[in-house]
Amino acid sequence: MALKVELKPGERIILGDSVITNDDQRTRLFIEGNA
Q1: In this predicted structure, what is the pLDDT of residue 1?
Q2: Contact 2, 30 (CB under 8 A)
Q3: How many domains does the chain have?
């Protein structure tokens, strides 16, 4: 099952050592992988 993240304009999320910053539109991320 994927991790579903929805970011509003300007929101940020930290993934590991990276910071992902959203632009001026709503964005949906679906993150899949093996744990």
Answers
A1: 86
A2: yes
A3: 1
